[in-house]
Amino acid sequence: MAIVSGDALDTGSSGSPQRVIPSAIAEAPETIRFLGTSVAAATYDSALEQVRQLAREPRATAVCPANTHIIGEARHNPEFARVLARFDLVLPDGMPIVWALNLHGAGLKDRVYGPYFMRHVLRSTPRPWRHFFFGDSPECLAELRIALAQLQPDIEIAGMISPPFRPFTEADEVSFADAINRTSPDFVWVALPGVRMERWIIDNQARYKGGVFLAVGDAFSLLSGRRSFAPAAMQRMGLTWAYRLCKEPLRLGPRYLRYNSAFLSYFLWDALRGRAWERARTRN
């Protein structure tokens, strides 16, 4: 495990970080239960206000931008569906999710794409908001730190951890929790493989004193410049997967064939039975 230290903390006489964050109460976006998962009909701005509010909770909270892979896996796997149900906020990460929600009256114009949402939040949360970054390689984190300073010159990086590329042991988890809890971050950005990432966040919530844990997948690689974003036109057409497939056909081909096909099959099956959506509601 590689731990990259964060910025120095300003501390009072007690030795704990001294910071004042303005309070505000944002109205929660409407949610629509789609293929068994409650997804917020959120925009980048409404989601930003929600995560700011979650950061003030006296507990660890969790946010998941969900694409077809995540929604399809939850529909297929009841155990993972229970994991996803424990997230405080599930966002429509993929255009197919947006289109599906709009068929039920959501009226969304865009998705809330994890890497773009991370960029939006970082630009909108200068000091005293504090950010911790968990995932990817030490090299990626070093490049990400440089990119973050350009993105938000007044960013406060509480710390960075590149976890080992193997199953985490109990000793690993204790070490992660100690390092993150000591820095009292408002936001913990998590970049692990999909499904494993969401499980890790929920399985370990009790270890953490606070902070919003956000599952952002490949955001570190994209925002650091190690990988390129799909062209905007392809993103609007819901073809980000096709761009990535062209870049990494051997690695991503089997994955996309399996999960995209599963998502489409479940959507068509549930829609024919009138069970693709459930009544829209407001999440408390």
Q: Indicate the proportion of strand residues.
A: 15-25%
Total count of helical runs of at least 4 residues? 12
Give unreliable regions as ranges: 8-18, 280-284
Structural class assignment: alpha/beta
Main β-sheet, in a few words? 7 strands, mixed
Whole-number average pLDDT? 87
Number of strands: 10
Q: Can you tell me the overall shape?
A: globular
Please give the alpha-carbon distance between the first and last residues: 38 Å
Strand order of the largest sheet: 1-7-6-8-9-4-5
The SSE string, one letter per element, is: EEEHEHHEHHEHEHEHEHHHHE
Whole-angstrom Rg: 19 Å
Q: Give the proportion of residues in helices.
A: 40-55%
Counting structural domains, the number is 1
Structural summary, described in words:
It is a single chain. The chain has helices at residues 44-55, 68-76, 78-85, 95-102, 114-124, 138-151, 170-183, 196-203, 219-223, 232-236, 240-247, 249-272, and strands spanning 2-5, 30-34, 37-40, 60-66, 89-92, 131-135, 157-162, 187-191, 211-215, 281-282. The chain has 284 residues and is of the alpha/beta class. A seven-stranded mixed beta sheet has the order 1-7-6-8-9-4-5, with helices on both faces. Strands 3-2-10 form a three-stranded antiparallel beta sheet. Strand 8, helix 8 (196-203) and strand 9 (211-215) form a beta-alpha-beta unit. Helix 2 crosses helix 3 (78-85). The longest helix has 24 residues, at 249-272. The radius of gyration is 19 Å and the shape is globular. Residues 8-18 and 280-284 have low confidence and may be disordered.
